[in-house]
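Narrative of accomplishments. A recurring question from our advisory board has been how the design workflow behaves on a single, concrete structure rather than in aggregate. To address it, we present the structure tokens for one chain from the evaluation set, followed by the sequence designed for it. No filtering or post-editing was applied between the two.
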């Protein structure tokens, strides 16, 4: 336990600097982009020069970039994300409304990709070179090459438009009045296609990684020793080969969290899922810089937390990692 706490403390200290770099870097990139929230407002509604000047002063856009960055960092120290220009509401409230949707989407997609992908990888890697190994390897390669947005559009056309098995868009039925299990079932039905679109690509990746890892473990000396002791092939596969091949997948689970969070922007836009991804698209369209900064900050915190959990899990799965961190 002390080893895990030491590892957690070291990672948290490093994460603070990572988040600071993300905040400053994102702010500078957004400042370099042409236009601002006032320009986006004028494009949609119009206005005179007096209104433009008043809006810039009201939103603090008349100040220098350095002053606005310093004010933003000072507000963050007080856990204040600021006010959304587009929604005229505190950014914290806007994000907290959308965050659970994205967490559910990412959690279900991760469970699908990691669980099914590793299981199929074990099934393929249990007998390297067999027919099932070749078939699953080829299928995973083809599936990994498919763009996520294209897969999402195909699923919508086939299963939502033609067959009408699942809803085309949304997170749940609007004003349905459902509660409890009925509401959970309605949400699950709406998320079948988004979760499949987001998770299947990473499923193929985990399948290939597990299969490749097991192929390497099969060649190690302790596997030959296990065979010499007369252990059954099933026990060797599950207790020795798959267990050792699982460690790289745990590392990849943390690395893929950022990519999956980025992929949710496209998937949520296609299926009109009201999560952080779609909120980010709306913030970009309306040039709501404070809101976009808040979304990126919360996303970065999510990725950091996921990687912290992965590091702790890896330390428990492989004590050598925790020991090296403790001695460093």
């Amino acid at each position: 336990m002390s080893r895990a706490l030491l590892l957690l403390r070291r990672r948290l200290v490093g994460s603070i600097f990572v988040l600071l770099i993300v905040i400053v870097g994102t702010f500078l990139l957004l400042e370099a982009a042409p236009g601002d929230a006032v320009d986006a407002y004028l494009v949609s509604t119009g206005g005179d020069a007096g209104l433009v000047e008043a809006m810039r002063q009201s939103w603090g856009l008349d100040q220098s970039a350095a002053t606005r960055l310093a004010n933003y960092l000072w507000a963050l120290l007080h856990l204040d994300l600021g006010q959304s220009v587009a929604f005229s509401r505190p950014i914290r409230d806007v994000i907290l409304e959308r965050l659970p949707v994205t967490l559910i989407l990412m959690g279900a997609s991760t469970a699908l990709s990691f669980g099914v992908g590793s299981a199929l990888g074990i099934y393929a890697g249990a007998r390297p070179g067999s027919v099932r190994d070749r078939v699953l390897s080829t299928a995973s390669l083809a599936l990994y090459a498919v763009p996520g947005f294209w897969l999402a559009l195909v699923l919508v056309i086939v299963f939502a438009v033609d067959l009408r098995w699942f809803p085309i868009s949304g997170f749940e039925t609007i004003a349905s009045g459902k509660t409890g299990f009925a509401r959970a079932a309605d949400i699950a039905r709406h998320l079948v296609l988004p979760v499949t679109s987001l998770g299947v690509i990473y499923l193929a990746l985990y399948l290939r990684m597990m299969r490749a890892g097991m192929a390497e473990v099969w060649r190690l000396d302790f596997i030959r020793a296990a065979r010499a002791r007369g252990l059954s092939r099933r026990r060797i596969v599950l207790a020795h080969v798959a267990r050792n091949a699982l460690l790289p997948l745990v590392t990849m689970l943390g690395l893929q969290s950022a990519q999956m969070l980025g992929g949710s922007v496209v998937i949520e836009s296609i299926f009109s899922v009201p999560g952080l991804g779609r909120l980010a698209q709306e913030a970009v369209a309306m040039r709501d810089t404070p809101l976009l900064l808040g979304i990126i900050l919360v996303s970065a915190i999510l990725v950091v937390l996921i990687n912290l959990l992965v590091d702790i899990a890896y330390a428990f799965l492989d004590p050598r990692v925790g020991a090296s961190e403790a001695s460093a």
